[in-house]
Glutamine--fructose-6-phosphate aminotransferase [isomerizing]
Amino acid sequence: MCGIVGYIGMRDSQDILLSGLKKLEYRGYDSAGVAVYTENGLEIRKAEGRLAVLESQLQQKPLTGSIGIGHTRWATHGKPSDSNSHPHTDQTMKFSVVHNGIIENYLELKEELMLKGHTFVSETDTEVISHLIAEEYQGDIVMAVQKAIKRMRGAYAIAVLTEHEPDKLVAVRLASPLIIGIGEGENFIGSDIPAILEYTRNVYILNDGEMAVLTKDRVELMTIEGNFIAREMFHVDWDWVTAEKGGYDHFMLKEIHEQPKAYLDTMGSRIATDDSKIILNEISMSEQEIRGIQRIHVVACGTAYHAGLVGKQVIESLVRIPVEAEVGSEYRYRSPIITKDTLVIAVSQSGETADTLAALREAKRLGARVVAITNVVGSSVAREADDVIVTWAGPEIAVASTKAYTTQLIAFYLLGLYMAQVRGTLEGAQIREIIAALRRLPEQAQRILEQQGEIKAYAELVAEHDNMFFIGRSLDYAVAQEGSLKLKEISYIHSEAYPAGELKHGTLALIEEGIPVIALATQPELFEKTVSNIKEVKARGAFVLGIANADDEELVKSVDRLLTIPKTLPILTPALSVIPLQLLAYYASLARGNDVDKPRNLAKSVTVE
Ligand code: F6R
C-alpha cells in the first residue's frame, strides 16, 4: 500500500525521504518518487519499480534542499509506471502532491479542470489534486488546500509542497492514516510511524478531517474547516530494532519464529496468576451487557478473516452464541441484520484495512457494539471500536501474515473464555483446563518450529507443482483455508482448501497422479472420517502429507509423509497446526526463488476498497 514521507528542516531532505520510504517498503509498492524544493525550484525524481531505481537516479542527479515529500505507490488508478508515480504536479510544476487513498470523483474534477485549460500527464486521481490546488491558489497554500479538499470525495491522506511557499508543508487526513513527527528545528510527515522513527519519537496522530501545517520550527493542527486543534503529543516507545530481521533471512521466517513469544505476550496479564480465570479489563461491557448478547458477527479480511473462522467455532463452542464470520468487503454492502444485542468483532492486524473499517462503521451505524482485535494501538480500527483487544505480536513486516493470525486466535480464546465465565457456560474446572492448555502452547509451538527441516523437505517437493489441495474438517478446515492462502500468496502455487467431506461432490475430479494434498487430521472426533477422505485421494494418486496429533501416529499408514504436532485440546489445535503450513509456504516460496517478504501484486496494508 502507498506510503508518504515529508521533511522540513535544515538537513538535506533527499536522504531523509529515502530512508523513510525504505521503512515503508513493507507496505508494498510498485513505484516511488520524491519532490524537493531546490535552488532551481521544485524538482521531482520518480521511477517505476523498487526504491533502488529511484535511489540510483538520485545518486546520478541529486536533489539538494531541506524540504521535500516522498511516496511509495501501490497502483490503483493507472498501471505502475514512471508517469503514474507520485509526486504529481500541476502543469506549472509549482504544486506537488503525494497521496494515499482514492479520490472517487476525480474524473468529474478532471473534466472540469480540462475545460479550464489544465492538461494532465498521468492516469491517476492524484494528479487531479495538484491541479485543483493550483486552480484554487490565491497566495495562501493552506486555504487553497482547504478549498480543494472541499471538492474532493473519497478517502485520502495527502502531503503538499508548493514552490510559492517553500517554508511550509501541508498534510491532510481523511480516512487514510497520517502522522506528524516533531523534531528540533525540523518536522516530519509519515503515513506510518516507522517512516520517521529514526528521527523522532514524538508524534501527533491526525484524525479524519484534520490537517497539519508544518514549518521547520512549528506544527499547527486544524480541522479541514480551519479550526485550530490542541493535541497531546504521543511518545512512541516502540523500538524499530525489534522490527528488523534479527538474523533471519526474511521477516516472514523471523515472525514465524516469534510466535511462541507473541502467544505469551498476548496472554500476558490477561490470565489470573492462579490460572483460574481470564481478566479482560479492556472490555468495558458490563456483565449484564455480555449476558444480553444474542449473536456475534466477525468481520475481517484475508488472514484475519481466517482467524475469524476459527474464532466463530471457538465462541460457539465455549459460549453457545451463534456467530457468523464474513469478509469485510461483503459485509459492508449486504445490509447485515444487527440488533442492539449484536456484538461485532472486527479483526485486523494493521487496523487500517479499508473494508474491515467500513464493515465496522456500518455495524456501528446500525447500532452494534464493536470489539476490535488488532495489532496496532492507535490504528483506525482500534480508535473506532468500543473496546480493543490488542494482540501483542509486535510489528509484522512480511506481507504474509503469520504471528498476527496466531495471536488473533489467542485473542479469540481469551475473549471466548471470558464470555463463558460471565455467562456461566463453562464450569470453573473446564476454564482451568483450557487455561492450563493455553499456557502450554508457547512451548509446544517452539517444538513445531524445531521440525522445520522436515517441512522444508516437503515444501521443496511441493514447489515443483502448480496445483495442490489442503483438506480438513471443522477447525482443521478453517486452518486449511489459511494454509492455502499462505501458500498461494508467496509461492504462487495454486491451491484450494476443501472440507475433507466435500471433495467427493466435485473436486475429487481434480485429483490426479502425484498431486500434493495436505490433510489435517487433528480433531479426535473427526479423525476416522478424515482418514476415509485421505484414502479417497490416495486411491486417486495424490501424494499426501498428513498433519496429526502426536498420539495419532498410526496415520502414517494412510499417508506418504506424516508430521505430528504436540497434543493440545482440540479447540486450541489451530494455534499449532497452522505453523507447519506457514513454514511450508515459506520454504516453497524460497525454493521457487520468490521475493518471500514482498510477494508480487500484494500490499501489507490495504487501505483502499
Ligand atoms: C495474508 C494477509 C492479508 C491480510 C488482510 C487483512 O497473509 O496478510 O490477507 O490478512 O489484508 O489485513 P489486516 O489484518 O491488516 O486487516
About this structure: The first helix runs from residue 13 to 23. The first strand starts at residue 3 and ends at 8.
